[in-house]
Structures are given as C-alpha cells and as structure tokens.
Inverse folding.
C-alpha cells in the first residue's frame, strides 16, 4: 500500500484511539478485523506508528506547540491528529518519503496547507526540550505526566525514577509460558525452532520463552494444542514464588482470564483445587476456553459480585488466597502506553480504597497456617506497600513472610526488599509487579 494511504489509515485509527476509553490494542484489533485488505506490512506500519505516538505523545505535542506557536488553534481535530503522525514519523522515527504530496491529501485546514512545506522541513531538525524542573525534563524526555514522575522521584529517587520511565517507554518482549501439562520447554522450543521462529529462554522463569520477532503466535498449531500461553515473565514468577503444593486448595480472587490460575494448575500437576473467581463473566468465559485448550482439570470457576459471597462456604478454607488486585496497571505501560494519559491521581486514590476492601474480605477465607498473597502490576506505594501495611495494622493474626527459597531458586534477589518483592522493568526486564506474602498464625 502507498505511504499516503497508510498515513490516511493511521490518521483514522489514531482519531479513534485518542477519543476512546478502550485500550489501544483492542481498538487496533477491531480496526484490522474490519479492514482485512490491509497486508501484514501495512498493519505493522499502522500499529507501530500508533504505539509510537502514544509512547511519545507529550514530546510530539511539545514539538508541535514549539513549531506552530499559536497556529495550532487554527487547526481542525483531524489535522491535529495528522500533525502528531508526521511529527512522530519524521522527528522521532526518521521516516523517509513524507513529502508534501503524500501528506496534503489528508489536510483539512488552510493554515496547515499553507505552512506544510515549512513544517516538514522544520521537523527534520532537532528541538531543544527547555524545562523548568527535573520533573518536567524527565516527563518531556519520556512522555510521562508530571504527577507520575513526581511520585516516582519521591518513592525511588531521581536517578531510578528516570530509569523506570525509560524502561516503561520501551518495547516489551513477546513472552510465552510453556504449559507443562501438555509439553516441556525443550519439546516446545524444538518445535518452534523447526518452524523458523527465533526464540530465547527467559532469564528467571524456567517455563518462559521470549520471541525475538513479533509474529501471530495464535495461528501456530502449538498454540492450538495448548502448549503455551502468552504471559509476561514477571507474571509467570508470581505463581512460582507462591509455589503451591499439589494437595493445596488455592483461591485466585480476581482471576480475570485466568493466566495465573492456569499456571497454578500446571505447577500443581492438575491436582489439588484452584478456585478462580471474578466479577467479570466475559473474562471468566475466556478462562473456560483456555482451560479446554490447556488440559487444566482442577480449576473451579465461580462468577461473583463481591468477595463477601464466598465467606459462607469458604471461611478459613484455603491454603493460599491470592489477591491479584485491580490496580492502575502502571507497571505494564510499555504494553499499553496510552494508559499514561488515562490514569489520574484520583484513579490511584479510588483503587487504593478498593484494594483495601478486597484484601480485608479475602483474608477471612485463609485457613490457620495458610497464606494470603497480595499482588499488583503497578509500581506506586499507594497501591502496594501502603495497602498491605494498612491491612496488617488491623489484622494482627497475619504477618509478612518472604519465600526466600523460591527467591534464591529463581535468582531474583535484586527484586527482594526487606519485606516485599518488587519487580521493576529496568532491573529484571519484566513488567512492573509488586508481591507480598502474609501468613496467618
């Protein structure tokens, strides 16, 4: 497809993404399904451009403001979207071939038509990111809102905060978790290599493989046979740290589509009991499909409206209760960069209260001597340490314990703090996760 047409499709899709509250990956998938004539190279160009703009949105917007001064006020919304695209492609991605003739057919505003040649020439030059503070400097460099940068500096220090922003603004690997109910790492690796798929083992998970090149893995026969699931390495490590025994009764409170429940089943060799509950019936239906493919037979699915529903039947019942709490997801920004512009400080406050409620309600289901696990895919203390410490102040029967044997076995000592485990992308190369284990005395 010609570059001009690709720019037009990207402009249309970016307009949808910027005005919707849905995740970009869902919207991109829907768009491609309704435009099946787009080839693989076309889809790659469009998707990579969209994600690139979302990753560098603040920087692109800064460049546009610096270049147009007050001229931006004269533009229609479609032209603002187009400017984001050409700014990213020329200034940040070094895309060649974006001439006036390629771009002009998509312009609506006279101001932009009259100044297009000058704008394209200017975008090939560098722009000084003049900033009033270190917070603003990091925010502009890696396109993060100032409030997130400020929180990170407060909690991690300036140097590590910048490293976190840099790593979260990068490209995540495509990672598989091998399903040991169906195969093993060596067999799956061998079959993938036979298919010409370039892979490497994960650094910490014994069941993980990174794909060096992104492909449609859902079309592979190995996927249809249930040999693997797509799962970030950090997410894989959480069930491995919990290390449930085949005789255990495990509750995955906020199971969603069940990535961790499926891994529990694999670790437990299809023995014991894994209860997966969630308030979202649609996501649990996805888990049912994954169960059939994976061969997991020890998972019991329960659709609930609240954790309190479980108390009558399961009070003090479970060996392990896992609260993979609803959170801001800031540790997964590299997979969903648009999240930077939808999560707010109010979001964090509201989620923190919800997390405290769920943890309190779930604790009643832990038997004496059992473990209560709290995990999130965020990196802010308000959703992590502060939630756990608030819980411990009112639940003296629980105490923090660390799975030291598993930490050593998985070689993630760098993620272990005095009380908790914090996986950070610039340290382990995983998404950002928080993990705490509390034992009921």
């Amino acid at each position: 497809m010609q570059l001009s047409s690709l720019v037009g499709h990207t402009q249309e899709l970016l307009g949808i993404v910027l005005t919707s509250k849905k995740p970009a990956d869902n919207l991109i998938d829907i768009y491609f399904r309704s435009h099946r004539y787009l080839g693989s190279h076309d889809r790659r160009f469009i998707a990579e451009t969209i994600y690139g703009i979302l990753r560098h949105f603040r920087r692109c917007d800064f460049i546009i403001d610096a270049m147009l001064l007050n001229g931006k006020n004269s533009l229609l919304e479609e032209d603002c979207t187009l400017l984001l695209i050409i700014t990213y492609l020329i200034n940040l991605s070094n895309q060649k071939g974006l001439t006036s003739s390629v771009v002009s057919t998509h312009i609506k505003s006279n101001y932009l038509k009259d100044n297009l040649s000058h704008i394209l020439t200017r975008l090939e030059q560098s722009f000084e990111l003049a900033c009033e503070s270190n917070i603003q400097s990091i925010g502009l460099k890696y396109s993060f809102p100032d409030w997130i940068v400020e929180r990170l500096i407060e909690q991690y220090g300036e140097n590590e905060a910048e490293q976190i922003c840099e790593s979260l603004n990068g490209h995540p690997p495509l990672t598989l978790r091998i399903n040991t109910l169906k195969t093993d790492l060596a067999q799956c690796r061998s079959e993938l290599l036979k298919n010409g798929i370039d892979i490497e083992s994960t650094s910490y998970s014994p069941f993980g493989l990174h794909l060096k090149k992104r492909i449609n893995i859902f079309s592979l026969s190995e996927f249809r046979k249930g040999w693997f699931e797509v799962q970030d390495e950090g997410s894989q490590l959480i069930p491995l740290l919990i290390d449930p025994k085949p005789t255990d009764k495990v509750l995955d409170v906020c199971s969603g589509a069940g990535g961790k429940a499926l891994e529990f089943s694999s670790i437990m060799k299809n023995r014991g009991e894994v209860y997966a509950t969630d308030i979202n019936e649609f996501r649990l239906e996805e888990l049912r499909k994954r169960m059939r493919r994976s061969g997991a037979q020890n998972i019991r699915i329960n659709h609930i409206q609240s954790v309190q529903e479980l108390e009558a039947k399961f009070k003090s019942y479970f060996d392990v209760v896992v609260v993979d709490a609803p959170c801001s997801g800031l540790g997964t920004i590299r997979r969903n960069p648009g999240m930077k512009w939808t999560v707010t400080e109010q979001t964090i406050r509201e989620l923190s209260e919800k997390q405290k409620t769920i943890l309190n309600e779930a604790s009643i289901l832990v038997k004496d001597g059992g473990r209560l696990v709290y995990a999130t895919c965020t990196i802010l203390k308000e959703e992590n340490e502060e939630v756990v410490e608030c819980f411990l102040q009112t639940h003296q029967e629980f105490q923090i314990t660390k799975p030291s044997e598993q930490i050593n076995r998985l070689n993630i000592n760098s993620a272990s703090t005095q009380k908790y485990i914090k996986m950070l992308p610039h340290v382990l190369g995983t998404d950002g996760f928080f993990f705490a284990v509390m034992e009921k005395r």
